[in-house]
Design a protein that fits this description.
Blueprint (H helix, E strand, L loop, with lengths): L3 E2 L7 H5 L2 H9 L3 E4 L5 E5 L2 H9 L4 E2 L16 H6 L10 H12 L2 H5 L2 H18 L6 E2 H6 L1 H11 L6 H13 L8 H27 L5 H7 L10 H31 L2 H9 L4 H11 L5 E6 L3 E3 L2 E3 L4 E5 H4 L34 H18 L3 E3 L18 E4 L1
Parallel strand pairs: 1-2, 3-9
Antiparallel strand pairs: 2-3, 4-6, 5-11, 6-9, 7-8, 10-11
The structure holds protoporphyrin IX containing FE.
The site of protoporphyrin IX containing FE has 26 residues, from α13 and α17.
């Protein structure tokens, strides 16, 4: 018998501050639960194996796309949705497969590996700036001075977005991302996201036009030139939509990996000291940070036909909420799941999803997390919180808005 639960708690202040006890409660009811009537979601999937099975079966469990939305979102009606629905995030096979293949071709391991020296150089520049700002014991905001600009600069370099435009981009990216939060598509948020979508689309249209005229060794050029096997390029709306979502997905997430990671280390002085003493442990620490406090707590899927997950029958025609952050704390998969333990041997998490929509930027995010945190610790022997870090409330893009530090 499958248990029935209410997800109302996920909208309360208490659970938003600390969702993990709620996730632990869900685990006590099994890996999949039916959601009490009246909710948008028919089922919640939170067990590790069950969540992985759902994400891997993209024929049965589909992402929201324009056919599921009922009507094709129009540029005039809802610009933000029109952008999302032309991107890899919100398309299913065969359209998704076609776009993803072209993206994989442009987002090659060669291009990611080649970024390592640039990541180190950009990190070193930001650390110089931090050192100057923190001189004499002044407080600095780690989020705006390091955790945001590092991934924005790396993505900017990869895609070819000029440095001068990156600060302009940040509030617009945040406005677009806000409607993806659980319950975040309020009228005000949608209006702000529509305006941001319009401005960002115009920005990338301009950049793409420049690269057609004057090709360079960057990803915008690679995508502008990428051709399908039948010789067709990505359509202009697909090209622009994907540039937008990659840029967005690529830095807000990594910003929080850096912010959450540093906070967790500062709250655990023994772990901080151990990592400081041996920076070659950075990959292990980053994996455990991603398991323990992942910035993306959930994914959503539509059930295309009657099916079964972990022995629970799920009827076609409903939405399921896949709680990735809960799966990362599943006691059936991880020994003492609520303990931060970089030495754990079971390290495969669902932080980057699984299956067809597996994160395009996982390798890049890991590299930035490892280099960013290691170089920060190398540079500053004394890092302290200058104010309590505040408690995140988001489930999507969970992290700190500000993180005030003193550095020496
Ligand atoms: C800590 C950092 C990151 C986390 C936690 C993260 C998490 C995720 C997750 C969970 C998904 C799957 C969503 C789903 O199945 O519904 C995803 C997809 C995606 N991510 Fe990431 N991501 C991170 C960094 C990045 C970076 C750096 C980039 C780009 C450079 C990126 C680009 C994408 C794209 C384009 C997709 C959609 C892929 C598709 O639908 O085919 N992400 N990410």
């Amino acid at each position: 018998m499958v248990a029935e639960v209410s997800l109302a708690a996920l909208h309360t202040e208490e659970v938003r501050r600390d969702p993990y006890p709620f996730y632990a409660e869900l685990h006590r009811h099994g890996p999949v639960c039916r959601v009490a009537p009246g909710d948008r979601y028919g089922y919640v999937v939170h067990g590790y194996e069950a969540s992985a099975a759902v994400l891997r079966d993209s024929a049965t469990f589909r992402v929201m796309d324009s056919t599921l939305l009922g009507a094709k979102p129009t540029w005039e009606g809802n610009r933000a949705h029109a952008v999302f629905m032309n991107s890899v995030f919100f398309t299913n096979a065969p359209r998704h497969t076609r776009m993803r293949k072209m993206f994989n071709q442009a987002f090659t391991p060669r291009r990611i590996n080649a970024l390592e020296p640039a990541i180190d150089r950009m990190t070193a520049d930001l650390l110089d700036r931090l050192a100057a700002q923190a001189a004499g014991g002044a407080k600095v905001d780690f989020m705006s001075e390091f955790a945001f600009p590092l991934p924005a600069n790396v993505l900017g370099e990869l895609l070819g977005v000029p440095e001068a435009d990156r600060a302009w981009y940040r509030p617009r990216a945040l406005a677009l991302g806000a409607i993806l939060e659980l319950g975040g598509a309020t009228a005000d948020n949608v209006a702000a996201a529509d305006t941001a979508a319009e401005e960002i689309t115009a920005f990338f249209a301009d950049l793409a036009a420049q690269r057609r005229q004057d090709p360079r060794d960057d990803m915008i050029t690679a995508l502008v030139q990428a051709l399908e096997s039948d010789g067709t390029p990505l359509s202009e709306e697909e090209l622009l939509a994907n540039l937008i979502v990659v840029f967005n997905a690529g830095f807000v997430t990594t910003t929080h990996l850096l912010g959450n990671g540093l906070t967790m280390l500062l709250e655990r002085p023994d772990e901080l000291a151990r990592l400081r003493a041996d920076l070659s442990l950075a990959p292990r620490y980053v994996e455990e940070i991603l398991r323990y406090e992942v910035p993306t707590h959930f994914s959503v899927r539509w059930v295309a036909q009657d099916t079964e997950v972990a022995g629970v029958p799920i009827p076609g025609g409903c939405w399921v909420l896949v709680l990735l952050a809960a799966a990362n704390r599943d006691p059936a998969q991880f020994d003492r799941p609520d303990v931060f333990d970089p030495d754990r041997t079971e390290t495969a998490t669902l932080s980057f999803g699984a299956g067809a929509h597996y994160c395009l930027g996982a390798a890049l995010a890991r590299l930035e997390g490892q280099r960013g945190l290691a170089m920060l610790l190398e540079r500053f022997g004394d890092i302290r919180l200058a104010a309590p870090p505040g408690t995140p409330r988001q489930l999507m893009l969970r992290g700190h808005e500000q993180l005030w530090l003193t550095l020496a």
